[in-house]
Amino acid sequence: MPKTILITGATDGIGLATAKMLAQEGHRVLLHGRSQAKLEAALAAVGDGGDGGRDGGATSYLADFSNLADVKRMAAEIARDRQHIDALINNAGVLKASDPVTADGYDIRFVVNMFAPMVLTRELMPLFSDESRIINLSSAAQAPVDLAALAGKRQLDDMGAYAQSKLAITMWSLALAQSQPQGPVVIPVNPGSLLASKMVKEGFGIAGSDLSKGATILRNLALEDQFASASGKYYDNDIGQFGPPHRDALDAAKASAVLQATETAVAEILAG
Questions:
Q1: To 10 degrees, the CA torsion angle through 84, 57, 52, 210?
Q2: pLDDT 10s per residue in the chain (272 long)?
Q3: Angle at CA of residue 82, ends 186 and 66, nearest 5°
Q4: Burial per residue of 122-154, b for 16 or more beta-carbon CB atoms within 10 angstroms, e otherwise
Q5: Which terminal Cβ of the chain has fewer Cβ within 10 Å, N or C?
Q6: What span, in angstroms and rounded, lies between the C-alpha atoms of 204 and 66?
Q7: Are the beta carbons of 168 and 114 closer than 8 angstroms?
Q8: β-pair partners for 7
C-alpha cells in the first residue's frame, strides 16, 4: 500500500535521492525546499504521477527553515492538504552559510538543523498515527553543545555549530521517543559519513561516496517492519546497525539543559 512521506531538504543530495527511490516504488512523496526553482526541478525529476502527487509521485512545499514562522506556515499547508503522514524524514540541514546568523540573532545551523525540525514535527503531530515514523538526520559529527552558542550569545565556526546541532537533534529525538512510548516511532540516524552531497563538497572539498547508501537507509527506516519497534534507538549507518550516539545524548542532565535552552529559543523566535 502506498505511503505518504514528507522529506525536508528534498531538492538535492540525500533528500532528493530518497524521494526518487520512494516515488519509483509508488509512494506519495511530499518534497520540501527553500528555492522555488529547485523545487520545480526536483518535482520534475521525481514526477508527480500525473495527479499532483495525490495517489503517487510527488508534490512540493516551499519554506525557508531559517524562519520558524515559515516552517509553521508550511505545516499548516500540509495539514490542509493531507489527513495523514506515514513518515517524516527531517533531512534539511546546513553546514556553511554566507550569513551564519539569522534575523532573529541565532546561529542558522541550530535553527535549520534542530529548531525547525522540532517545530515542524510538533505542528504535524495530529497527522501521525502510532505507526508513523519520524526519522531525524543526525551525524557522526556530534559534539558537546555550548548553551551560549545555542542561545545566540556566542558564535561558533561552521563545523562546530553543525556538530553541536546534530547532537542537539539526537537528544531531542531520544526525548521525543521517550515521551511517546506508544508512537509514532522516532529514530535519529547518521545516514553515512562523507556521502556525495553538496554539504560534503562545501565542507570538505571532496566528492564523497555513493548517496544511495544514505537514501537506502532513510527509505528502510521509514518503511521496513524491522524498524517498527526501534523508537528511541540511534542508527549508525557507518556501521550498518544501531549503536550509541555521543555520550552526552545519554546524559539526562546535559540533554535536559539543551532541550530547555532550545524551548526558550524557539519560544522567543516565534514570539517575534
A1: 100
A2: 899 999 999 999 999 999 999 999 999 999 999 999 999 999 999 986 544 445 567 999 999 999 999 999 999 999 999 999 999 999 999 999 999 999 999 999 999 999 999 999 999 999 999 999 999 999 999 999 999 999 999 999 999 999 999 999 999 999 999 999 888 999 999 998 755 455 644 555 554 567 888 999 999 999 999 999 999 999 999 999 999 999 999 999 999 999 999 999 999 999 98
A3: 60
A4: ebbbebbeeebbbbbbbbbbbbebbbebbbbee
A5: N
A6: 23
A7: yes
A8: 31, 89
Q: What is the pTM of this model?
A: 0.93
DSSP code of 247? G
Instruction: Count CA atoms within 13 Å of residue 37 on its CB side.
Output: 0
| 172 touches 114 (CB < 8 A) | yes
Q: How many Å apart are CA 114 and CA 95, to the nearest integer?
A: 12
Q: Give the CB-side neighbour count of residue 82, counting CA atoms within 13 A.
A: 30
Residue identified by cell 547518521 is 190
Question: What pairs with residue 58 in β-bridges?
Answer: 29
